[in-house]
Amino acid sequence: MQHTDAGAELDPVHPVPLPAPIRATGLTTAEVAERVARGQVNDVPVRSSRSFGEIVRANVFTRFNAIIGVLWLIMLVVAPIQDSLFGFVILANTGIGIVQEWRAKKTLDSLAVIGEARPTVRRDGAAVEVSTNGIVLGDLIEIGPGDKIVVDGVCAEADGLEIDESLLTGEADPVVKRPGDQVMSGSFVVAGGGAFAATKVGREAYAAQLAEEASRFTLVHSELRTGISTILKYVTWMMVPAAIGLVATQLVVKNNGLKDAVARTVGGIVPMVPEGLVLLTSVAFAIGVIRLGRQQCLVQELPAIEGLARIDTVCLDKTGTLTEGGMDVTELRSLDGVDETYVRKVLGSLGESDPRPNASLQAIIDAYPDSEDWRCVESLPFSSARKYSGATFSEGDGELSTWLLGAPDVLLGADDPALAETVRLNEQGLRVLLLARASRDLDDPKVAQGAGPTALVVLEQRLRPDAADTLRYFADQEVRAKVISGDNAVSVGAVAAKLGLTGTTVDARRLPAEPAEMAEALDSGTVFGRVTPQQKRDMVGALQSRGHTVAMTGDGVNDVLALKDADIGVSMGSGSEATRAVAQIVLLNNSFATLPSVVAEGRRVIGNITRVATLFLVKTVYSVLLAVLVVCFQVEYPFLPRHLTLLSTLTIGIPAFFLALAPNKERARPHFVRRVMRYSIPGGVVAGVATFVTYLVARHYYTGTGSLDAETSAATLTLFLISMWVLAIIARPYTWWRVALVAAMGVAFVFVLAVPALQSFFALKLVGVVMPWTAVGIAVVGSAVLELLWKWVERRFPD
Question: What is the pLDDT of residues 280-296, one digit of tens each?
């Protein structure tokens, strides 16, 4: 084992002071305890979500809660308790939001612990796994392919160690590390192995500093949340002048009693606030996280639920996604009459030479035991870029031999007869590796040139039993699947065909480098083989340049760059730590079949929030319009807060909660704001005008004491009926429970009108026969106009 002492062999460009001499045995138990006592621990908390305090603040301290809170306090002073009901509704809504998000946080945190990596450190000469926050300053941490560097440090041992720092520097090419070189947290190993000593832990580590600038709990890429923020901004602009005009009219122009004027002013302002819309969105997201958590799906960023619902292209890595990680050796074919027993010895020794074998090499290890009299002198780890690994052995008789194991189409010449046999096997969906004897030294960059083919190792990949159904689901949902793999194109195409995925198979080495031309080739092709890690990234970018929303699945280090650049990155739980770190969604059960559930959950959230947002904003529009009309006509505002609390609860609050959580398989569509406003504005205008017409007619019909209450009751009836028609349209297509929901809201309103105590409580009493039926007639006309108007909007402004 190689090791360095403090200050020795440091990188002259990036010298790093070490906390203590690096010993190959690592720290002792006493040294670890001493560092823990000094606080030299990697104590950065794993934050997959907001803290409880942040959740409470986010749900309580909002602009609209502040408006509603002030108005509520005023109403508690100047009006009966029934006019303050809206405040209790806000309290309940906020409480529900906090509880649901807290439940989602608990789900996220518990799943994050399951998916958390456990680095291997050397202590007292033994390799032990510890949690990430159990690392102390000076720990000697072992690393291999796929491992993420979790703290800053200095390389102490290196065996062909190559580290990808692209997530930190943007440079795609792996960096070869030697003892003394600096390693930085946030990078990951792509080839080889070694160990490094921790020089910066906790918040001093580079990755921790980056993490503090960008918390994992973000909603920045959510069209839904951005759209709702935009809508709320428009609402604020409408609210302010309307509310000012209403206050002036009720307090100055109309000579009402102060308390009644204040009550009717507040009654006009409160319904302008779509306070439940933000809450309902948070609840829908939170419940989505909880539902997916039950299926062992870790959503690392909430917008990922929404994002996956918007995808139209999913790029699948074959290994670990369409096939299971394990393989089996089905056949060994010696070439040029080489003794098969000798070949078995070579393969067994190759397997023993790699301390971290990939799936292919593990199958060879399982099939061929190590030859005890062979000794590995030098090894070359497998690299996705090279497509082969190698080792130099001292055989039992002392002779040295160098061997390569990798892709036949990389190691063989185009005219080699063994290549034709490889193609035939690939067409059956089998994976083939070539064992070749090299004539050059292993550290020669051209070691593969002139290597003599010795044997073909035939491997059978285990297809995931659920892969075919999942691919069918995506096809039914008009989501195009692209298989992108580093394996032989013919072999990958055969595997895809077995799973029912048809289309053109392309060797990525023949793909054009120009993004526009590559995008065209990607649109026409389905299966792509021999794809390099950089090409995977370029392919994702090329698809995005054509307007596609791209999801990428993967589990290996060669997938990291593409996962990072894709709109949605999906990693398997058993994948490398690097892939889990950059992915937005981690399938902890390693089941590709979970993806349809994620897509369905996203579609449920987006489709239903778009649906119920219309309900909330119709109320906002008609409230603003009513306020404007009241100011223009210089009349009393027709409603008290209790009336609109009742209407909001029956036509929006209760139905919206059920509709937001209902199943919805409708494909997510863009332009959320436009789609919501094109229905909300005409709906709100029709409801506001019809209600105000009823109110004006009632003002001419009723005279004397109590006339204002009778006028309010008639206007309330019209507004309720039109709001019910809006709800009936939003609830389409009908199912038994949707019909029952709408009917139940109608029955509840009739119950309020029929029970004297509730009549008195809500100040609702229909007087006479003519005016109530006139209110119904106006509502019927308004509903018919609304139906025709929405159909015209649908034709005039299609999705």
Answer: 777 777 788 788 888 88
Using one digit for the tens of pLDDT, what is the confidence trace for 140-176? 999 988 788 888 899 998 888 888 876 666 566 678 8
pLDDT at 327 over 90: no
* Cβ-based neighbours of 276, under 8 Å, separated by 6 or more: 93, 616, 652, 653, 656
Dump the DSSP string for 274-316. Answer: -HHHHHHHHHHHHHHHHHHHHTTEEESSTHHHHHHHH-SEEEE
Q: Is 506 helix (H, G, I), strand (E, B) or coil?
A: strand
Q: How far is CA 533 from CA 390, 405, 527, 559, 598, in A?
A: 20, 20, 16, 6, 26
Angle at 112 between CA 109 and CA 116, to 5 degrees: 140
Q: What is the largest CA-CA distance in the chain?
A: 119
CA–CA distance, 723 with 650 (Å, rounded to integer) = 9
Residue 364: alpha-carbon gap to chain centroid = 37
Amino acid at 390: G
415 is catalytic: no
My answer on whether omega of the bond before 733 falls inside 30° of 0, hence cis, is yes
Beta bridge partners of 586: 298, 571
Name the catalytic one among 317, 487, 565, 567.
317
Mean pLDDT of 262-279: 77
What are the phi and psi torsion angles at 185 (to 5°)?
-65, 145
Cα 407 to Cα 412: distance, rounded to the nearest angstrom: 8
Backbone angles phi, psi at 181, to 5 degrees: -75, 150
- Residue 435 CB contacts under 8 Å (≥ 6 apart), including other chains: 343, 346, 347, 350, 403, 404, 405, 453, 454, 455, 456, 457
> Dihedral through CA 121, CA 126, CA 131, CA 133, nearest 10?
-60
So what's the pLDDT on residue 630?
87
Between the alpha carbon of residue 593 and those of residues 323, 464, 469, 553, 588, the distances in Å are 12, 9, 8, 12, 12
Is the overall model pTM greater than 0.70, yes or no?
A: no
